[in-house]
Amino acid sequence: MPDGRFGALAGWAQRHRWAALVLWVAVVAAITLGASAAGSAYRNDFSLPGTDSQAATDLFKQHGSDQAGDSVEIVFKDTAGIRSAEDRVEPMLAEVRQMAGVADVRSPFVDASAVSEDGTIAYASVTLDGKTEDVPKEDVARIIDTARSTATEQLQVEVGGEAARNAEDKEGPTAELAGIVAASVILVLLFGSLLAASLPLITALFAVGGAIGLIALASHVFTVADFTPPILMLVGLGVGVDYALLIFYRYRHELLAGARPAEAGRKALDSAGRTVFFAGCTVIVALLGLVALGLGSLQGIALAVAITVLMTMAASLVLLPALLALFGGRIQRHVRKQQAKATKKGTAEGDGWRAMARAVQRRPLPTLLVGVFALLALSAPALGMRLGFADSGNDPAETTSRHAYDLLAEGFGPGFNGPLIVLVKGDQEAGKTVQERLATTDGVAAASPAMPSEDGALSTVFVYPTTSPQDEGTVDLVHHLRDDVMPSLEQATGAEVLVGGATAASQDVSETLAARLPLFVAVVVGVSSLLLLLVFRSIWIPVKAAVLNLLSISAALGVITLVFQHGWFGAQPGPVEAFIPALIFAIVFGLSMDYEVFLVSRIHEEWSRTQDHSQSVREGLASTGKVITAAAAIMMFVFGAFVLGSDRMLQQFGLGLAVAILLDAVVIRCLIVPAVMQMLGKWAWWLPAPLARRLPKVSIDRPQHS
């Protein structure tokens, strides 16, 4: 039987196994050396053109206002009164004023508003010479070290602000190591052989190694956020092992069927290799759809993860066949030993999954209803999901940024940690009028005097809400100011008035992402469904896949909402990070399609051979249930390792991916899909004749002709 394109690729890799290996090692080494020499240029970009907060930032820069740069707060607490610490604090502030990255320092001893009413808590504002993402972390770290060196038993000194949060020491690669260990253990349990277990892992590590270097180089050209590397490492590890495992498992299946190692490799790539290619392309399409959301940092993450998935596909389709050619004989001997043991026991590969498939087929409707009800119940909390961004109030209790946040809230009220910066483009009299009106607005605790810019064209008013930055009351206040208060002020003063600052900007980003998300989801679901329609030539297969994939994702978002928004299991309550729904949707939808194609293509293969839909479902599940569950378990542990870290966004990302993969592999692929396929019967492969004539023929099954 002639090989298809993927079989031919496997044949080339097998014949030139050493050349393929050397080529991969050379490419990864060259990328790594190049990345080490060039370094990385990761930077965050949360700008969002067209919003009030971005317009305010642009005006700040244009008119030379100090507020163009972000700031950090050095916070002091002395129970004997802050004045008693002036001799220690002032020399330190003078030293900070001369440091790199510092534009200005305002001492609490010359600004009475920077001292709490009881005189025990005060803060010094350190204005940086740029936005947080533009100031080197080393410069901010030196400010933190210098400030905290003045602390005594009586004087507590902490440093807060977004720049301080970013500059604090991050944890080591705990999550990555935990993911590798979990993957290794599961693979050894699955195959009973250290050699067999190591091949998917080696393939994934090669792919991730190359991807990390490529992204570091790409960061010089594109905006790539500084939190991207851990995401791409764990996604690359999970997806890389997943793809290699699907191909390796089909290779093992062909060996059990009596094929020689070289033939088994070609057949595996002609079937599972096609699945991997299709699934990888789906993930990449979904990720590149994030570019349409128009947010710089999110576009960088999408590009980085898409490159990582592309590398894992290449490694699975070229490097893995070369490794199989090198070790095929030893793997074949091990598989035959396992087969002999199973024959002696009277068991066959997949017997347990066949039994489960029969149980589902006897009661398909109750199985379907129970599974869908469980997913809907988990999805329900997502209806009340509130998007936002974590701030210092969500940091671990031992960090200086969290201590500073708590001290400022204690001394000056909960809204002090998230002031709104109101910009008045007009004369100073207009600024004064705006300040007076804001000071008496409901939900405002205080409004600072209007501060003119260097050229006098702008005035800046700091507005302190009565609620904390993440409180819904603060969101309502921003809307009230923009929709009700500012229009009348603009009419009365003739000035342009904008509400900006980090708190308002976070809200703008969250609301813009939420507004654009439905279109993004519709495009990704539409493109993926079209691909499934072409591959399986069926109307119902893509409809079923789209609905079930959306259910697993919404259930994962529901769990995230319960844990992180409502504070289940001891998590700090707060909004769900604005990036999370889009990121999880893009990655999980593609990975879910991976399992969908792998399972349904095996069912379709059996259907093409037997035309018996019940047997096709049983044999499809028997052939794939074990590997889908193992692959899902690996990814669940790999992604779940994110939860071990302290970064709130990565914790939410990891939990969401782990839950979505668990539900997809166990509830959907092993229960709901067999139930639906059994109920549909031969109609599962129905395609209207007029549409069938117009659609191009694209096959994902291994060629059946002889």
UniProtKB/TrEMBL annotation:
UniProt xrefs under InterPro entries: MMPL_dom, Mycobact_MmpL, SSD
Domain SSD, residue spans: 201-326
Top-level lineage group: Bacteria
Keywords attached to this entry: Cell membrane, Membrane, Transmembrane, Transmembrane helix
Record localization: Cell membrane
PANTHER family found in the cross-reference section: MEMBRANE PROTEIN MJ1562-RELATED, MEMBRANE PROTEIN SCO6666-RELATED
Family: Belongs to the resistance-nodulation-cell division (RND) (TC 2.A.6) family. MmpL subfamily.
Protein name: MMPL family transporter
Source organism per UniProt: Streptomyces justiciae
Taxonomic path: Bacteria, Bacillati, Actinomycetota, Actinomycetes, Kitasatosporales
